[in-house]
Fold:
Amino acid sequence: MRKFLQRLMGDWVIRMSNRFGSRPDAARIHDALTKLFNTIQEEPGKRGLILEMTREHKYIIFSDQHKGARDFADDFSLSEKNYLSALKHYNAAGFHYVNLGDSEELWENLMESVIKHNKETFEHEKWFINRNAFTKIFGNHDLYWDNDPLAGFNLNRIYGKKIPVYEGLILKSQIGDNILCIFLTHGHQGDLQSDGNWFSKWFVSTIWAPLQSYLQINPNTPAYDNQLKTVHNSLMYSWQAAQHHTALITGHTHQPVFASLTHLERIYLKLKAATTDNDQASIKTLNEELKKRVKEGDKAPEFKAYSPGYFNSGCCCFSDGDITGIEIESGLIRLIKWSFHKTGSPERILLEEMKLEDLMEAT
Structure:
């Protein structure tokens, strides 16, 4: 019966989840991002931090774990092994960990359930706290950390101390004569159905969670199956493109974006370049890749001039157990994936990379 209902209702449930999970509004998003960015600049420590970023500093950015109660509605359960291995690696290598929001799924779960079933992940995160190398940012699904009077009490229970939780972070790097600002926030700001909206929260907890648990559906497709940028990601990009020497990193959409492009968009650009060069081998390979990812009748996007300054960390709850994140190290920014599908054990895979100097010039 469950398999029959999965086939019958699976697509509908996911469509409804997407419909009630996000309704981005351009003006609200741009105003909210500008207000937060300016507040952090003018009053560091109130809503966010400003941290120095030199070639010696190392940052790893993960978002959207959605840690739950280890039931069938817990999207994080399949990715936990990759997440723990990644934290072990980055802690040993001396990285500063930026947790970019929606770490705990508190729309679907009680706090007690999340604490009970995620002790090992909290212990791994505590390694960074003990090194003073952990910045926690809240998202819409863990807005609790920003507005509940018991938040500090529960943070102390989890981590052994009441750590601050912020709405954003700015990394500043001196590159030549200029300063590059990398602005990090979860990315739900200005989203009419996610920015603390009671109806969206009701739908997720009352309708979506029970259906997801019974039907055993994870709506987060594998990391590299993403199509063109979501509307929300496009609006985030439009804000960034209007800034000067400022890049933007968010989460929220669960869709990895590197230098303002998804993987599929990069394939189209590579195909265009290969066609111009008459590189038949590359054309064949890229067309084969497109056949796996593009539905019949879909048209290629029209690429205009773009600023490669928008990034999205993806999520740590893909349906295949993979996780994606953003590394900043040694003057480079990278999109990485942790996966155990090829080796049977968690493995770090480099997906994209660019120099911060090039990012500065392009923004």
The chain has twelve helices and twelve strands. The mean pLDDT is 85. The chain has two domains: 2-261+308-362, 263-305.
